[in-house]
Amino acid sequence: MKLKRIPLIFLSLLLVLMPVFVSATDEITVEFDRVSERVLVVKSGKVYTDQIVALASKKGMVMIDTGIAPTLTEKYRKVIEREFGRNDFVYVINTHYHWDHTNGNQIFPEAVIISHETSPDRMRQFDQGRPNSVAQRRARITQWKNQLKGLEPDSERAQRIRDAIDSSEITCDDLENNYILTLPTLTFNDRLTLDMGDLTFNLLYFGEGLHTGDDIIIHCPEEKLLFTGDLFYKGSMSIAFSSQFDAPRWMSVMNEVLKDEDAVEWVYDCHNGRMSGEFISLWRDYLVELWNDLSAASEEGLDLVTVQDRFSYENKYSFISKSGIDPEQLKREHQNNVKYVWYRIKELQSAATVIGQVIAESGMDAALKKYAEIKDAPVEKYYFDEVEMNRLGYQLINQNKLKEAIEIFKMNVELYPETWNVYDSLGEGYMLLGEKELAIKYYEKSLEINPDNTNGVAMLERLKSEKEEL
Questions:
Q1: pTM (two decimals)
Q2: How far is CA 98 from CA 23, 123, 159, 203, in A?
Q3: Which residues make Cβ contacts (< 8 Å) with residue 221, sequence separation at least 6?
Protein backbone atom coordinates (compact mmCIF):
# COMPACT_ATOMS: atom_id res chain seq x y z
CA MET A 1 0.00 0.00 0.00
CA LYS A 2 1.32 3.40 -1.00
CA LEU A 3 0.45 6.32 1.28
CA LYS A 4 0.84 10.00 0.55
CA ARG A 5 0.61 12.65 3.23
CA ILE A 6 -0.11 16.10 1.89
CA PRO A 7 1.07 19.05 3.99
CA LEU A 8 -1.58 20.78 6.09
CA ILE A 9 -1.49 24.44 5.08
CA PHE A 10 -3.47 27.09 6.91
CA LEU A 11 -6.22 24.64 7.94
CA SER A 12 -6.44 26.28 11.34
CA LEU A 13 -7.37 29.55 9.63
CA LEU A 14 -10.21 28.16 7.50
CA LEU A 15 -13.08 28.92 9.83
CA VAL A 16 -11.72 32.41 10.42
CA LEU A 17 -11.39 33.11 6.71
CA MET A 18 -14.81 31.79 5.70
CA PRO A 19 -16.90 34.72 4.43
CA VAL A 20 -20.18 35.47 6.16
CA PHE A 21 -23.14 34.62 3.92
CA VAL A 22 -26.83 34.12 4.60
CA SER A 23 -28.26 31.16 2.65
CA ALA A 24 -31.56 29.35 2.38
CA THR A 25 -30.56 26.55 4.75
CA ASP A 26 -33.06 27.73 7.37
CA GLU A 27 -35.79 26.48 5.05
CA ILE A 28 -34.35 22.94 4.98
CA THR A 29 -35.04 20.51 7.79
CA VAL A 30 -32.08 18.52 9.06
CA GLU A 31 -32.96 15.05 10.31
CA PHE A 32 -30.94 12.22 11.82
CA ASP A 33 -31.12 8.46 12.36
CA ARG A 34 -29.38 6.94 15.36
CA VAL A 35 -28.31 3.66 13.78
CA SER A 36 -26.58 2.49 16.95
CA GLU A 37 -24.86 3.88 20.03
CA ARG A 38 -21.83 4.68 17.85
CA VAL A 39 -23.39 5.52 14.46
CA LEU A 40 -25.38 8.61 13.48
CA VAL A 41 -26.74 9.40 10.00
CA VAL A 42 -27.48 13.09 9.45
CA LYS A 43 -29.34 14.24 6.36
CA SER A 44 -31.63 16.69 4.60
CA GLY A 45 -34.13 15.96 1.87
CA LYS A 46 -37.05 13.54 1.93
CA VAL A 47 -36.37 11.33 -1.12
CA TYR A 48 -33.10 12.50 -2.67
CA THR A 49 -31.02 13.08 0.43
CA ASP A 50 -27.83 14.90 1.21
CA GLN A 51 -26.41 12.54 3.79
CA ILE A 52 -23.29 12.15 5.90
CA VAL A 53 -22.45 9.61 8.58
CA ALA A 54 -20.65 10.11 11.89
CA LEU A 55 -19.14 7.26 13.90
CA ALA A 56 -18.00 7.77 17.48
CA SER A 57 -15.01 5.62 18.45
CA LYS A 58 -12.75 5.50 21.47
CA LYS A 59 -10.05 7.37 19.57
CA GLY A 60 -12.27 10.08 18.10
CA MET A 61 -15.02 10.86 15.64
CA VAL A 62 -14.89 9.63 12.03
CA MET A 63 -16.97 11.23 9.26
CA ILE A 64 -17.99 9.52 6.03
CA ASP A 65 -18.32 12.29 3.40
CA THR A 66 -19.19 15.88 4.24
CA GLY A 67 -22.17 16.85 2.12
CA ILE A 68 -23.21 19.14 -0.65
CA ALA A 69 -22.82 22.62 0.86
CA PRO A 70 -20.79 24.10 3.73
CA THR A 71 -23.74 25.96 5.24
CA LEU A 72 -25.72 22.71 5.41
CA THR A 73 -22.75 20.80 6.80
CA GLU A 74 -22.40 23.37 9.58
CA LYS A 75 -25.90 22.41 10.68
CA TYR A 76 -25.04 18.70 10.43
CA ARG A 77 -21.98 19.20 12.62
CA LYS A 78 -24.04 20.88 15.33
CA VAL A 79 -26.47 17.93 15.35
CA ILE A 80 -23.60 15.45 15.59
CA GLU A 81 -21.93 17.32 18.45
CA ARG A 82 -25.22 17.59 20.31
CA GLU A 83 -26.19 13.93 19.89
CA PHE A 84 -22.80 12.49 20.79
CA GLY A 85 -21.89 15.16 23.32
CA ARG A 86 -18.38 15.48 21.86
CA ASN A 87 -16.54 17.26 19.06
CA ASP A 88 -13.26 15.38 18.66
CA PHE A 89 -13.36 14.91 14.88
CA VAL A 90 -10.14 13.13 13.90
CA TYR A 91 -10.87 11.73 10.41
CA VAL A 92 -13.00 12.66 7.42
CA ILE A 93 -13.21 10.04 4.67
CA ASN A 94 -14.22 11.20 1.17
CA THR A 95 -15.70 8.29 -0.78
CA HIS A 96 -14.83 10.12 -4.04
CA TYR A 97 -14.09 13.60 -5.29
CA HIS A 98 -17.55 14.80 -6.31
CA TRP A 99 -18.59 18.15 -4.88
CA ASP A 100 -21.74 16.76 -3.25
CA HIS A 101 -19.50 14.54 -1.10
CA THR A 102 -16.64 16.93 -0.37
CA ASN A 103 -17.96 20.50 -0.33
CA GLY A 104 -18.35 20.37 3.45
CA ASN A 105 -14.71 19.39 4.09
CA GLN A 106 -13.95 22.92 5.28
CA ILE A 107 -16.31 22.47 8.25
CA PHE A 108 -13.88 19.96 9.81
CA PRO A 109 -10.55 21.85 9.70
CA GLU A 110 -9.10 19.89 12.62
CA ALA A 111 -9.59 16.47 10.97
CA VAL A 112 -7.28 14.50 8.71
CA ILE A 113 -9.13 14.11 5.40
CA ILE A 114 -8.62 10.76 3.65
CA SER A 115 -9.30 9.83 0.02
CA HIS A 116 -7.97 7.83 -2.89
CA GLU A 117 -4.75 9.28 -4.24
CA THR A 118 -6.38 10.57 -7.44
CA SER A 119 -9.11 12.55 -5.68
CA PRO A 120 -7.20 15.78 -4.82
CA ASP A 121 -6.32 16.55 -8.45
CA ARG A 122 -9.91 15.94 -9.50
CA MET A 123 -11.13 18.28 -6.77
CA ARG A 124 -8.70 20.95 -7.99
CA GLN A 125 -10.01 20.51 -11.52
CA PHE A 126 -13.57 20.99 -10.31
CA ASP A 127 -12.55 24.13 -8.44
CA GLN A 128 -11.00 25.59 -11.59
CA GLY A 129 -14.26 25.14 -13.46
CA ARG A 130 -16.46 26.18 -10.56
CA PRO A 131 -18.14 29.22 -12.25
CA ASN A 132 -19.21 27.11 -15.20
CA SER A 133 -20.43 24.34 -12.89
CA VAL A 134 -22.59 26.83 -11.04
CA ALA A 135 -24.02 28.17 -14.31
CA GLN A 136 -24.81 24.67 -15.48
CA ARG A 137 -26.39 23.77 -12.14
CA ARG A 138 -28.57 26.90 -12.16
CA ALA A 139 -29.72 26.00 -15.68
CA ARG A 140 -30.58 22.54 -14.41
CA ILE A 141 -32.59 24.06 -11.54
CA THR A 142 -34.66 25.93 -14.12
CA GLN A 143 -35.26 22.66 -15.97
CA TRP A 144 -36.36 20.90 -12.79
CA LYS A 145 -38.77 23.69 -11.88
CA ASN A 146 -40.37 23.38 -15.31
CA GLN A 147 -40.59 19.61 -14.95
CA LEU A 148 -42.45 20.02 -11.65
CA LYS A 149 -45.31 21.74 -13.45
CA GLY A 150 -46.29 18.48 -15.15
CA LEU A 151 -46.04 16.22 -12.08
CA GLU A 152 -48.42 15.30 -9.30
CA PRO A 153 -47.24 17.40 -6.33
CA ASP A 154 -47.37 14.45 -3.92
CA SER A 155 -45.55 11.99 -6.18
CA GLU A 156 -42.15 10.57 -5.28
CA ARG A 157 -40.71 11.97 -8.50
CA ALA A 158 -41.92 15.47 -7.63
CA GLN A 159 -40.44 15.25 -4.14
CA ARG A 160 -37.13 13.99 -5.52
CA ILE A 161 -36.98 17.01 -7.84
CA ARG A 162 -37.87 19.41 -5.01
CA ASP A 163 -35.07 17.90 -2.92
CA ALA A 164 -32.63 18.37 -5.80
CA ILE A 165 -33.75 21.97 -6.31
CA ASP A 166 -33.39 22.87 -2.63
CA SER A 167 -29.93 21.35 -2.22
CA SER A 168 -28.72 22.67 -5.57
CA GLU A 169 -29.77 26.25 -4.83
CA ILE A 170 -27.85 26.18 -1.55
CA THR A 171 -24.88 24.58 -3.27
CA CYS A 172 -24.74 27.27 -5.96
CA ASP A 173 -25.00 30.02 -3.35
CA ASP A 174 -22.20 28.45 -1.32
CA LEU A 175 -19.93 27.85 -4.30
CA GLU A 176 -20.19 31.53 -5.13
CA ASN A 177 -19.96 32.94 -1.61
CA ASN A 178 -19.04 30.47 1.09
CA TYR A 179 -16.67 27.81 -0.23
CA ILE A 180 -13.01 27.09 0.37
CA LEU A 181 -11.35 24.25 -1.51
CA THR A 182 -10.29 21.84 1.26
CA LEU A 183 -8.30 18.90 -0.07
CA PRO A 184 -7.62 15.48 1.41
CA THR A 185 -4.47 15.41 3.51
CA LEU A 186 -3.88 11.64 3.54
CA THR A 187 -4.29 9.54 0.41
CA PHE A 188 -3.83 5.88 -0.49
CA ASN A 189 -3.85 3.80 -3.67
CA ASP A 190 -5.13 0.36 -2.67
CA ARG A 191 -6.10 -0.32 0.95
CA LEU A 192 -5.93 1.51 4.25
CA THR A 193 -7.05 0.41 7.72
CA LEU A 194 -7.89 2.74 10.59
CA ASP A 195 -7.77 1.17 14.05
CA MET A 196 -9.91 3.37 16.26
CA GLY A 197 -9.82 1.15 19.35
CA ASP A 198 -13.35 -0.22 19.41
CA LEU A 199 -14.03 0.36 15.69
CA THR A 200 -12.11 -0.64 12.57
CA PHE A 201 -12.42 1.06 9.20
CA ASN A 202 -11.23 -0.95 6.20
CA LEU A 203 -10.89 1.39 3.22
CA LEU A 204 -10.66 -0.32 -0.17
CA TYR A 205 -10.21 1.25 -3.59
CA PHE A 206 -13.06 -0.11 -5.70
CA GLY A 207 -11.63 0.39 -9.18
CA GLU A 208 -12.40 2.05 -12.49
CA GLY A 209 -15.64 2.16 -14.37
CA LEU A 210 -18.70 2.24 -12.12
CA HIS A 211 -18.80 5.89 -11.06
CA THR A 212 -15.85 8.29 -10.95
CA GLY A 213 -12.84 5.96 -10.89
CA ASP A 214 -11.54 7.23 -7.54
CA ASP A 215 -14.33 5.58 -5.54
CA ILE A 216 -13.56 3.80 -2.30
CA ILE A 217 -15.75 1.69 -0.04
CA ILE A 218 -15.47 1.62 3.74
CA HIS A 219 -16.33 -1.46 5.80
CA CYS A 220 -16.83 -1.20 9.56
CA PRO A 221 -17.05 -4.84 10.67
CA GLU A 222 -17.93 -4.15 14.30
CA GLU A 223 -21.11 -2.38 13.18
CA LYS A 224 -21.62 -4.59 10.10
CA LEU A 225 -21.88 -1.45 7.98
CA LEU A 226 -20.62 -0.73 4.46
CA PHE A 227 -20.35 2.80 3.06
CA THR A 228 -20.33 3.05 -0.73
CA GLY A 229 -20.67 6.72 -1.77
CA ASP A 230 -22.46 6.68 -5.13
CA LEU A 231 -21.44 3.23 -6.33
CA PHE A 232 -24.73 1.43 -5.71
CA TYR A 233 -28.40 2.33 -5.73
CA LYS A 234 -31.14 0.14 -4.34
CA GLY A 235 -33.37 1.01 -7.32
CA SER A 236 -31.01 -0.37 -9.97
CA MET A 237 -29.07 -3.50 -10.91
CA SER A 238 -26.89 -1.74 -13.49
CA ILE A 239 -23.33 -3.07 -13.50
CA ALA A 240 -21.53 -0.83 -15.96
CA PHE A 241 -22.09 2.22 -18.13
CA SER A 242 -19.21 1.56 -20.54
CA SER A 243 -16.72 -1.19 -21.27
CA GLN A 244 -13.96 0.61 -19.36
CA PHE A 245 -14.37 -1.08 -16.00
CA ASP A 246 -12.24 -3.26 -13.79
CA ALA A 247 -14.56 -6.22 -13.20
CA PRO A 248 -11.85 -8.49 -11.73
CA ARG A 249 -11.02 -5.87 -9.09
CA TRP A 250 -14.68 -5.23 -8.32
CA MET A 251 -15.27 -8.93 -7.74
CA SER A 252 -12.13 -9.23 -5.61
CA VAL A 253 -13.07 -6.25 -3.42
CA MET A 254 -16.68 -7.39 -3.00
CA ASN A 255 -15.60 -10.94 -2.20
CA GLU A 256 -13.22 -9.60 0.44
CA VAL A 257 -15.92 -7.53 2.11
CA LEU A 258 -18.57 -10.26 1.88
CA LYS A 259 -16.36 -13.21 2.77
CA ASP A 260 -18.37 -13.82 5.93
CA GLU A 261 -22.09 -14.41 5.50
CA ASP A 262 -23.12 -11.79 8.06
CA ALA A 263 -20.29 -9.31 7.40
CA VAL A 264 -22.64 -6.58 6.14
CA GLU A 265 -26.09 -5.91 7.52
CA TRP A 266 -26.68 -2.45 6.05
CA VAL A 267 -25.16 -0.42 3.23
CA TYR A 268 -25.26 3.37 3.17
CA ASP A 269 -24.96 5.54 0.11
CA CYS A 270 -25.25 9.32 0.27
CA HIS A 271 -28.48 10.11 -1.54
CA ASN A 272 -30.92 7.24 -1.25
CA GLY A 273 -31.09 6.06 2.33
CA ARG A 274 -29.75 2.60 2.98
CA MET A 275 -29.64 -0.82 1.33
CA SER A 276 -29.56 -4.28 2.82
CA GLY A 277 -26.51 -6.51 2.81
CA GLU A 278 -28.61 -9.02 0.85
CA PHE A 279 -29.03 -6.50 -2.00
CA ILE A 280 -25.29 -5.94 -2.28
CA SER A 281 -24.63 -9.68 -2.16
CA LEU A 282 -27.14 -10.19 -4.97
CA TRP A 283 -25.39 -7.50 -7.05
CA ARG A 284 -22.03 -9.24 -6.49
CA ASP A 285 -23.43 -12.68 -7.36
CA TYR A 286 -25.02 -11.29 -10.51
CA LEU A 287 -21.75 -9.72 -11.67
CA VAL A 288 -19.76 -12.89 -10.99
CA GLU A 289 -22.21 -15.13 -12.85
CA LEU A 290 -22.51 -12.77 -15.82
CA TRP A 291 -18.74 -12.40 -16.08
CA ASN A 292 -18.21 -16.17 -15.99
CA ASP A 293 -20.99 -16.90 -18.50
CA LEU A 294 -19.81 -14.32 -21.03
CA SER A 295 -16.17 -15.29 -20.63
CA ALA A 296 -17.12 -18.86 -21.53
CA ALA A 297 -19.20 -17.62 -24.47
CA SER A 298 -16.21 -15.66 -25.75
CA GLU A 299 -14.05 -18.78 -25.59
CA GLU A 300 -16.78 -20.59 -27.52
CA GLY A 301 -16.60 -18.00 -30.30
CA LEU A 302 -20.15 -16.72 -30.01
CA ASP A 303 -21.25 -13.30 -31.28
CA LEU A 304 -23.06 -10.61 -29.28
CA VAL A 305 -26.51 -11.32 -30.75
CA THR A 306 -26.28 -14.98 -29.75
CA VAL A 307 -24.95 -14.07 -26.33
CA GLN A 308 -27.79 -11.61 -25.71
CA ASP A 309 -30.34 -14.32 -26.54
CA ARG A 310 -28.70 -17.17 -24.62
CA PHE A 311 -28.11 -15.08 -21.51
CA SER A 312 -31.24 -12.96 -21.60
CA TYR A 313 -33.16 -12.03 -18.48
CA GLU A 314 -35.90 -14.51 -19.37
CA ASN A 315 -33.56 -17.40 -20.25
CA LYS A 316 -31.05 -17.18 -17.43
CA TYR A 317 -31.08 -14.10 -15.20
CA SER A 318 -34.57 -13.67 -13.80
CA PHE A 319 -33.09 -14.42 -10.36
CA ILE A 320 -32.16 -10.74 -10.07
CA SER A 321 -35.89 -10.11 -9.53
CA LYS A 322 -35.05 -10.83 -5.87
CA SER A 323 -33.95 -7.19 -5.84
CA GLY A 324 -37.60 -6.16 -5.83
CA ILE A 325 -37.05 -3.89 -8.84
CA ASP A 326 -39.65 -3.71 -11.61
CA PRO A 327 -39.02 -6.59 -14.08
CA GLU A 328 -39.28 -4.34 -17.15
CA GLN A 329 -36.54 -2.11 -15.77
CA LEU A 330 -34.42 -5.16 -14.93
CA LYS A 331 -34.75 -6.43 -18.50
CA ARG A 332 -33.50 -3.11 -19.90
CA GLU A 333 -30.64 -2.90 -17.41
CA HIS A 334 -29.64 -6.51 -17.99
CA GLN A 335 -29.49 -5.98 -21.75
CA ASN A 336 -27.10 -3.07 -21.23
CA ASN A 337 -25.07 -5.04 -18.71
CA VAL A 338 -24.63 -7.90 -21.18
CA LYS A 339 -23.50 -5.46 -23.87
CA TYR A 340 -20.90 -3.70 -21.74
CA VAL A 341 -19.57 -6.83 -20.06
CA TRP A 342 -19.21 -8.40 -23.52
CA TYR A 343 -17.32 -5.36 -24.84
CA ARG A 344 -15.06 -5.54 -21.79
CA ILE A 345 -14.33 -9.25 -22.22
CA LYS A 346 -13.67 -8.80 -25.95
CA GLU A 347 -11.37 -5.85 -25.06
CA LEU A 348 -13.08 -3.47 -27.46
CA GLN A 349 -12.10 0.14 -26.97
CA SER A 350 -14.70 2.79 -26.25
CA ALA A 351 -14.60 5.44 -28.97
CA ALA A 352 -15.79 8.03 -26.44
CA THR A 353 -12.95 7.20 -24.06
CA VAL A 354 -10.32 7.32 -26.80
CA ILE A 355 -11.60 10.63 -28.17
CA GLY A 356 -11.74 12.10 -24.67
CA GLN A 357 -8.12 11.15 -24.06
CA VAL A 358 -7.04 12.74 -27.34
CA ILE A 359 -8.84 15.97 -26.40
CA ALA A 360 -7.07 16.06 -23.04
CA GLU A 361 -3.64 15.35 -24.51
CA SER A 362 -3.67 17.01 -27.95
CA GLY A 363 -6.76 19.17 -28.36
CA MET A 364 -9.91 19.13 -30.44
CA ASP A 365 -8.35 19.19 -33.91
CA ALA A 366 -6.49 15.98 -33.14
CA ALA A 367 -9.69 14.50 -31.69
CA LEU A 368 -11.60 15.22 -34.88
CA LYS A 369 -8.95 13.36 -36.88
CA LYS A 370 -9.13 10.47 -34.42
CA TYR A 371 -12.92 10.36 -34.74
CA ALA A 372 -12.65 10.04 -38.52
CA GLU A 373 -10.08 7.27 -38.10
CA ILE A 374 -12.18 5.33 -35.57
CA LYS A 375 -15.30 5.50 -37.73
CA ASP A 376 -13.45 3.61 -40.47
CA ALA A 377 -11.70 1.13 -38.12
CA PRO A 378 -12.67 -2.57 -37.94
CA VAL A 379 -15.64 -3.25 -35.66
CA GLU A 380 -13.48 -5.71 -33.72
CA LYS A 381 -11.43 -2.80 -32.33
CA TYR A 382 -13.77 0.05 -31.32
CA TYR A 383 -17.41 0.60 -30.48
CA PHE A 384 -19.53 3.76 -30.40
CA ASP A 385 -22.18 4.28 -27.75
CA GLU A 386 -24.64 7.18 -27.68
CA VAL A 387 -24.75 7.42 -23.88
CA GLU A 388 -20.96 7.38 -23.54
CA MET A 389 -20.52 10.08 -26.17
CA ASN A 390 -23.16 12.22 -24.48
CA ARG A 391 -21.47 11.73 -21.10
CA LEU A 392 -18.16 12.85 -22.59
CA GLY A 393 -19.82 16.04 -23.82
CA TYR A 394 -21.07 16.89 -20.35
CA GLN A 395 -17.71 16.07 -18.80
CA LEU A 396 -16.19 18.66 -21.12
CA ILE A 397 -18.85 21.18 -20.09
CA ASN A 398 -17.90 20.60 -16.47
CA GLN A 399 -14.29 21.33 -17.44
CA ASN A 400 -15.40 24.62 -19.01
CA LYS A 401 -14.61 23.30 -22.51
CA LEU A 402 -17.86 24.33 -24.17
CA LYS A 403 -16.63 24.37 -27.77
CA GLU A 404 -15.14 20.90 -27.40
CA ALA A 405 -18.38 19.65 -25.83
CA ILE A 406 -20.36 20.97 -28.78
CA GLU A 407 -18.10 19.09 -31.20
CA ILE A 408 -18.80 15.87 -29.29
CA PHE A 409 -22.54 16.51 -29.34
CA LYS A 410 -22.28 17.14 -33.10
CA MET A 411 -20.55 13.77 -33.51
CA ASN A 412 -23.42 12.15 -31.61
CA VAL A 413 -25.96 13.82 -33.90
CA GLU A 414 -24.08 12.40 -36.89
CA LEU A 415 -23.93 8.93 -35.33
CA TYR A 416 -27.51 8.80 -34.00
CA PRO A 417 -29.60 11.20 -36.14
CA GLU A 418 -32.90 9.56 -35.18
CA THR A 419 -32.43 10.03 -31.42
CA TRP A 420 -34.06 13.05 -29.81
CA ASN A 421 -31.66 13.31 -26.86
CA VAL A 422 -28.59 14.04 -29.01
CA TYR A 423 -30.30 17.18 -30.34
CA ASP A 424 -31.39 18.18 -26.83
CA SER A 425 -27.76 17.98 -25.64
CA LEU A 426 -26.47 19.92 -28.64
CA GLY A 427 -29.09 22.56 -27.96
CA GLU A 428 -27.95 22.83 -24.34
CA GLY A 429 -24.34 23.17 -25.46
CA TYR A 430 -25.16 26.07 -27.76
CA MET A 431 -27.34 27.65 -25.08
CA LEU A 432 -24.46 27.62 -22.58
CA LEU A 433 -22.19 29.09 -25.26
CA GLY A 434 -24.67 31.92 -25.82
CA GLU A 435 -25.57 30.84 -29.39
CA LYS A 436 -29.33 31.18 -28.91
CA GLU A 437 -30.40 30.74 -32.55
CA LEU A 438 -28.55 27.43 -32.82
CA ALA A 439 -29.82 26.36 -29.41
CA ILE A 440 -33.41 27.00 -30.53
CA LYS A 441 -32.80 25.10 -33.78
CA TYR A 442 -31.65 21.93 -32.04
CA TYR A 443 -34.19 22.03 -29.22
CA GLU A 444 -36.88 22.29 -31.91
CA LYS A 445 -35.39 19.28 -33.71
CA SER A 446 -35.40 17.35 -30.44
CA LEU A 447 -39.09 18.13 -29.95
CA GLU A 448 -39.86 17.18 -33.54
CA ILE A 449 -38.65 13.66 -32.73
CA ASN A 450 -39.97 13.55 -29.16
CA PRO A 451 -42.81 16.00 -28.43
CA ASP A 452 -42.84 14.75 -24.82
CA ASN A 453 -39.37 16.16 -24.12
CA THR A 454 -40.41 18.49 -21.29
CA ASN A 455 -36.89 19.82 -20.90
CA GLY A 456 -36.84 20.87 -24.55
CA VAL A 457 -40.19 22.64 -24.16
CA ALA A 458 -38.96 24.53 -21.09
CA MET A 459 -35.65 25.54 -22.68
CA LEU A 460 -37.34 26.74 -25.86
CA GLU A 461 -39.73 28.90 -23.85
CA ARG A 462 -36.82 30.39 -21.96
CA LEU A 463 -34.70 31.02 -25.06
CA LYS A 464 -37.53 32.58 -27.08
CA SER A 465 -38.49 34.76 -24.14
CA GLU A 466 -34.91 35.98 -23.77
CA LYS A 467 -34.74 36.60 -27.52
CA GLU A 468 -37.88 38.77 -27.41
CA GLU A 469 -36.43 40.85 -24.59
CA LEU A 470 -33.40 41.85 -26.67
A1: 0.78
A2: 22, 7, 23, 18
A3: 200, 202, 263
For residues 94 and 446, what is the distance between their CA atoms, to the nearest angstrom?
39
Contact (CB, 8 A) for 63 and 42:
no
Instruction: Out of 150-159, 342-351, 358-367, give the one with best mean pLDDT.
Output: 358-367
**Beta-carbon neighbour count of residue 163 at 10 Å?**
20
Q: Structural domain tally of the chain?
A: 3
Q: Report the run of H or E that residue 114 belongs to, with start and end.
A: strand 112-116
Is residue 197 within 8 Å of residue 59, measured between CB atoms? yes
Chosen domain end from 347, 371, 404: 347
Name, in order, each residue with C-beta under 8 angstroms of 53's C-beta and a sequence gap of 6 or more.
39, 40, 41, 42, 63, 64, 65, 227, 268
Q: Alpha-carbon distance 436 to 469, whole Å?
A: 13
**What burial letters (b/e) apply to 429-459, b meaning 16+ CB within 10 Å?**
bbbbeebbebbbebbebbbebeeebbbbbbb
Of 393, 355, 357, 348, the residue nearest 371 (C-alpha) = 355
| Residue at 182 is within a domain | no
The residues that bridge with 49 in the sheet, in sequence order, are none
Task: Give SS3 for 379.
Answer: coil
pLDDT tens track for 22-35: 345 567 889 999 99
406, 380 Cβ separation under 8 angstroms: no
Considering the domain boundaries, does residue 240 fall inside one?
yes
At 108, which amino acid appears?
F
Q: Kindly report, residue by residue over 376-396, the tens digit of the pLDDT.
A: 887 778 889 898 899 999 989
Is the confidence at residue 12, as pLDDT, over 50? no
Residue predicted with more confidence, 242 or 255: 255
Amino acid 460: pLDDT: 85
Contact assessment for residue 340 and residue 356, using Cβ atoms and an 8 Å cutoff: no
Provide the H-helix boundaries in 301-350.
304-310, 327-345
Domain that holds residue 222: 17-177+191-228
